[in-house]
């Protein structure tokens, strides 16, 4: 039982019930709730999967480490445009992959060992379910069960990839983002079902490594939840790099000797697409199906997310939730910010902090990169908001000339009456970095004029794209 118990005096034998001050389900963002405020208190940390959660093991961190390697390869291939002759002789997939996981895996393992052996927490390795009010039963990974109760419980259980029935029921082997990054060898031809951010990031990575990539998306555009102008420009550029099939449904799949065959349907009729590896990237749903929410008295939204109030409380007294399991934004910076608020609220019942409500930014690390915050132009129209917009091309700035850029843009939307930004949407190199002053402006209520004219913008840095876009808004 030593794996489960950092402090044997705090835990009973199987069949007994242990009581804790705090129990945390999930060690992604949940791990950060173990703050010095809980020193001397009894804290249970429960993890049913890989310690450290999605971002560290199968999400943000490894994907961006792959993206960086992909960009090294892509830049070398593009070098001739600048008079530099460089040849990519090949990509050593095993070395690319091992560099990444040899760094990440020890962090996850070290975090687990610290929670098991270190001070202040009792780690339970297994799947937790509510079996009553603030009462959990943990099905231990190495067999057996433990039951525990706690004064406060935080659900930080995250989300998992959705696999459409048509894929699951076909019996065809497939990968999700949970598994694709650890494959043994690069495929010749990767078929990706799903045109959201995970699909297009993976398309960029594998295409840059020399893999032929097909992307099948149901919607008319890739990344279709974005501002339509950006999504349309992105989709057009994606078609130059990958085999992109939008407005397309997968109706059946079958295994072939070499890989997989997909039967597709679009407005022109049916077609067949063959590849040797299939990645399903059709979204993620919260981990609430097997959490015993009814027994715990925890209300869910229709989409399966745990419902929380403005300070992170669920419908069950003493039970909180944060991150992908409850948030409409499945993003690590959102989960982190919610964890900070809840860490405070757990110990300050008379001074509850609201979960952050600032405009939520998001980045897509594909080729090109995209960054977005605030409203799309379509949302402004739907809401009947008076607005002006301006699109600044990277290519019309000094650094854009240096980069020979002809496709990248910064689109800003503002309220002409107040001069405040309503939305910012960038597509091009360093978009996820360039957007930061715009996120700041929106979070702190700075006007377009103040941000544009109230500070120096380094010349001739790429950030002049943002400066010029602000000036172009003329509000
Ligand atoms: C491929 C990919 C790329 C991404 N890239 C980005 C990015 O670039 N930027 C960004 O902001 N976000 C990104 N994300 C999203 C980001 O990873 C998540 O928003 C974030 O990790 C959510 O954190 P969390 O703490 O809510 O959940 P998680 O980190 O998923 O943690 C939940 C933990 O709870 C455990 N668990 C679940 N149910 C139980 C149970 N019943 N009992 C015990 N344990 C349980 C799980 O095993 C898991 O370890 C990416 C996600 C993916 C999949």
TrEMBL record:
The keyword Hydrolase does not apply. One of its GO terms (molecular function) is oxidoreductase activity, acting on a sulfur group of donors, NAD(P) as acceptor. Disulfide bonds join 55-60. Binds 1 FAD per subunit. SUPFAM superfamilies: FAD/NAD(P)-binding domain (SSF51905), FAD/NAD-linked reductases, dimerisation (C-terminal) domain (SSF55424). FAD binds at residues 64, 324. Residues 21-339 form the FAD/NAD(P)-binding domain. The active site is at residue 459. The keyword Lyase does not apply. It comes from Humibacillus xanthopallidus. Belongs to the class-I pyridine nucleotide-disulfide oxidoreductase family. Its cofactor is FAD. PROSITE patterns: PYRIDINE_REDOX_1. NAD(+) binds at residues 194-201, 283. It comes from the Bacteria. Residues 360-469 form the Pyridine nucleotide-disulphide oxidoreductase dimerisation domain. This is Mycothione reductase. It holds the Pfam family Pyr_redox_2.
């Amino acid at each position: 039982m030593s794996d489960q118990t950092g402090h044997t005096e705090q835990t009973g034998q199987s069949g007994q019930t242990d009581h804790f001050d705090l129990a945390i389900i999930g060690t992604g963002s949940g791990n950060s709730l173990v703050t010095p405020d809980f020193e001397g208190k009894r804290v249970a940390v429960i993890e049913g999967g890989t310690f450290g959660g999605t971002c560290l093991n199968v999400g943000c961190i490894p994907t961006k480490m792959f993206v960086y390697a992909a960009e090294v390869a892509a830049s070398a291939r593009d070098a001739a445009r600048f008079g530099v002759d460089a040849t990519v002789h090949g990509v050593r997939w095993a070395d690319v992959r091992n560099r990444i996981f040899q760094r990440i895996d020890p962090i996850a393992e070290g975090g687990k060992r610290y929670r098991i052996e270190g001070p202040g927490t009792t780690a339970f390795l297994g799947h937790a379910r509510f079996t009553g009010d603030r009462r959990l039963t943990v099905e231990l990974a190495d067999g057996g069960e433990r039951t525990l109760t706690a004064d406060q419980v935080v659900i930080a259980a995250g989300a998992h990839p959705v696999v459409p029935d048509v894929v699951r029921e076909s019996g065809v082997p497939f990968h999700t983002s949970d598994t694709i990054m650890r494959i043994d060898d690069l495929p010749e031809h990767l078929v990706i079902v799903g045109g959201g951010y995970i699909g297009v990031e993976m398309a960029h990575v594998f295409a840059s490594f020399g893999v032929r990539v097909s992307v099948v998306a149901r919607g008319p555009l890739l990344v279709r939840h974005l501002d339509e102008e950006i999504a349309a420009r992105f989709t057009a550029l994606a078609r130059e790099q990958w085999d992109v099939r939008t407005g397309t449904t997968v109706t059946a799949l079958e295994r072939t000797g070499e890989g997989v065959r997909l039967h597709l349907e679009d407005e022109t009729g049916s077609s067949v697409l063959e590849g040797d590896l299939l990645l399903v990237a059709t979204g993620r749903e919260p981990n609430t199906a097997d959490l015993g929410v009814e027994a715990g008295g925890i209300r869910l939204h229709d989409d399966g997310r745990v419902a929380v109030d403005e300070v992170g409380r669920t419908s069950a007294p003493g039970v909180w939730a944060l991150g992908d399991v409850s948030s409409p934004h499945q993003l690590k910076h959102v989960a982190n910010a919610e964890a900070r608020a809840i860490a405070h609220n757990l110990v300050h019942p008379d001074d509850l902090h609201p979960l952050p409500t600032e405009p939520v930014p998001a980045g897509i690390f594909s080729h090109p990169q995209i960054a977005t915050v605030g409203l799309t132009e379509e949302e402004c129209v739907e809401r009947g908001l008076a607005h002006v917009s301006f699109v600044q091309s990277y290519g019309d700035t000094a650094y854009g000339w240096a980069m020979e850029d002809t496709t990248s843009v910064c689109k800003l939307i503002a309220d002409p009456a107040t001069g405040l930004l309503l939305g910012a949407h960038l597509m091009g190199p360093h978009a996820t970095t360039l957007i930061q002053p715009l996120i700041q402006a929106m979070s702190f209520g700075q006007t377009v004029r103040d941000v544009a004219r109230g500070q120096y913008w380094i010349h001739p840095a790429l950030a002049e794209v943002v400066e010029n876009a602000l000036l172009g808004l003329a509000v």
